[in-house]
Amino acid sequence: MVVDDSRMQRKILSSQLARAGYSVTEAGSAEDALALAEIDPPDLVISDWMMPGMSGIEFCQALRAQVKENYVYFILLTSKTESAEIARGLDGGADDFLTKPVSGDELRARIAAGERILGMERELTDKNRLLSSTLGELQALYDSVDRDLMEAKKLQQSLVRERHRDFGKAEVSLLLRPSGHVGGDLVGFFPINARRVGIFSIDVSGHGITSALMTARLAGYLSGNSPEQNIALVLTEFGIYDARPPEELAEQLNRVVMQEMQTENYFTMVYADVDLISGRVVMVQAGHPHPAIQRADGRVEFLGKGGLPIGLVEPADWEAFEALLLPGDRLFLMSDGITEAEDAQGVQLGEAGLSRLMATCRDFSGADFLESLVLHLTDYAGDEFGDDVSGVLFEFHGAKEL
Predict the structure, then answer these.
(1) Fewer Cβ close by (within 10 Å): the C or N end of the chain?
(2) pLDDT digit string (tens) for 40-65?
(3) Every domain of the chain and the residues it spans
(4) What are the tens digits of pLDDT across the range 254-270?
(5) H/E element holding 271?
(6) Which fold has domain 2-126?
(7) How many other C-beta atoms lie within 10 A of the C-beta of residue 277?
(8) How many CB atoms lie within 10 A of CB 176?
């Protein structure tokens, strides 16, 4: 667009531009140019500086405010040569200057420079538009995944339907708090027979959906609702269920993971077979934090020698170990989200710190004990845990009367 109150100047510039192959629109004033630009915004404007009514600088500012979607390259046509005046024009929004009388070679060179800038601007605009579109699609995908994860969280929490059970002379309470939407921790218990119960704490490697799917499958393998599917149980010749020795259960789970699941994930576990009458506990530890017994007098003992995680190598062996619970004693199985929780200085809680927390919470029982433990853990590590936090609390009150 050529804007000049001089009809002769407009014709000279328009003819030069038309011969160069450009489509040219003429306007005799800034007001007429703005009206034309409202209908068909130009790519490039050559405007006289001094015109009746609105000046070239005022026209440039008005055009910038009017045409916002695409950039318009603006060249001021002037007889001014002082640097202060040129600086004022640039501050007003102009991109370049042409000095009267206009040389054809200079005109073509300035327009070529403007075309390069417009080309880069349009390329950037297209890329930004594509980026915005892609970000919009990603946001929609994220929102969809987020909704799915919220539902997955509900489903994973439903794997631990029963958080507390009173067996008369003993109680089991469960804690499961993923650090994200879903996690890789699993806790639970199942009756073995009238006097024994199996309890377990599992931590699948990694975080997120893959780990959560593996915990769902493991929950099926250790289900208390379907003893025929629970691989910890075996049907005896008398038609009743009994439990595999804990070390055999670890070996069986290892075979299942290595041969059937065929996944890169592995998991750690503590499984305990507890006699509700005698208080005898037979356990296996597979790379999981050491189980803790809090005696009735408050002392805390850590048991086990570690062992290999499940799903790393085959064949692998595990050793069982025993403990005896007396009335008033507690057995606590926990994930490393508790023992490896860090304070602001990066110091892990560890077994010594856990002993202190258990001593602090000793006057509570059941779910109240676990809730108090989490609150004190929050005081230590902050509101956001870096890992899933889970645990099984077994409280032995005394011999069960049959």
Answers:
(1) C
(2) 999 999 999 889 989 999 999 999 99
(3) 2-126, 159-396
(4) 999 888 777 778 999 99
(5) strand 267-275
(6) Rossmann fold (3.40.50)
(7) 15
(8) 23
